Structure formats: C-alpha cells, structure tokens
Automatic annotation (TrEMBL):
The lineage of its organism: Bacteria, Pseudomonadati, Pseudomonadota, Gammaproteobacteria, Chromatiales. Residues 8-213 form the ABC transporter domain. InterPro entries: AAA+_ATPase, ABC_transporter-like_ATP-bd, ABC_transporter-like_CS, P-loop_NTPase. It comes from the Bacteria. PANTHER family: ABC TRANSPORT PROTEIN ATP-BINDING COMPONENT-RELATED, ABC TRANSPORTER DOMAIN-CONTAINING PROTEIN. One of its GO terms (molecular function) is ATP hydrolysis activity. It comes from Ectothiorhodospira marina. This is ABC transporter. The keyword Hydrolase does not apply. Keywords: ATP-binding, Nucleotide-binding. The keyword ATP-binding applies. SUPFAM superfamilies: P-loop containing nucleoside triphosphate hydrolases (SSF52540).
Amino acid sequence: MDAPTFAVTDGPLLQLTGLQSDHMGPVDLSLAPGELLLIAGPSGAGKSLLLRAIADLDPLRGQVWLDNQLRETILPALWRRQVGYLPAEPVWWADTVDAHFTGVQDDWLEQLGFQSDVRQWEVERLSSGERQRLALARMLGNGPRVLLLDEATANLDPDNTLRMESLVRGYMTERQAGAIWVSHDHEQRQRLGGRLLMMELGRLAEPALESRA
C-alpha cells in the first residue's frame, strides 16, 4: 500500500501548541519542512515523553498540527505513518524481517550495510544494532513527513551510526521531511548540524553558548 499523502502548505510542517503530559511541558514548537531539530538534556528531562506525545502514543493536552491539519482530524494509524517514531529499542513482532516491511527500498537497505536477502532473515537472528538499522528502513517505508528519532543510534558502532545519519539526511532532503532527533552524543550533534534545543524538567529552551561548542 502506498504511503498516504497530505497537501503541503506554506506554513510549518509540524506545530505544537501547549503540548504537555503529566511530566512534560507545556511545549510550543514549530518545525519547518526539511528542518532538523536536535534535542539534548539530562536523563529524565522529558525528551522521550515529548516524542511519544507527538507520535500520539501517550495521553496529552494541547494541540499538534501537521501541514495545518489538527491531529484529532486524522486517524491515529494514519498519523503514526506520517509522524514516524523510532525508539532506541524498537519492537519486532513477526518471524521474518520482510513481514514488517511495506515500501522499503533496496537502496535504503544497501545504505544501511545490508544485501536485499536480509528481507528473508529471521528476526531472532538479528543483533540489537541490526534491528535498529532495519527499524529505520521499516519506518521510512511508511513515507513519514516527520521523523522522531529517540537515541536512534545508541546501539550502533561508529560506521553504522554514520550510515543511519546519512540515510536520514538523504531522506529528509529528498522528501522535504522534518526530523526531531534526541541525542546525548555531542559529536553526533556537531556532525548533523541543525537547530539545537535543551530539555530540562520537561521544558525546552535555547542552549547556553557554551553548550553549543
């Protein structure tokens, strides 16, 4: 099944207004088409809670818009295809890799260091790093407009980390997709560039100058 499409507007790709849960927020945020937003901060600051709230995985208050469409007007399954969430430890439910794939391109798999026969691999034989890389391809196969990446390379070695970064950047450029990437890795944030915000006690703020160095 082809990925659903939305009419692209001249305004923000993603807009958060007063978004909050019991332990996060309120957050007001705007993400432009093709923009990468990096979020850093101490453990327990609410970074994962923010991404899960945007992905409509946890109860929340406030409003979220995608291309000027209010989230409540979009079916939840359709929202989660267009706003893709990749946690540090993705879930796999079927026996083989290909049973999880829809719309996954072979060139994505090659960029991630796999041959096309990985589709026939059994999930139980995959290492944590292989599961992480393949979960990115699985998410991209849905054609998301917004990528929510929660420590997406935490289980990867340096080479595979670079592979994932390159694929995400390429996808964003090709599709004019936006991304919010939570990362504790200072060097990764330096490589990726983009806008940096810090999160502490459930709130987002511009980083101090010394935090940018």
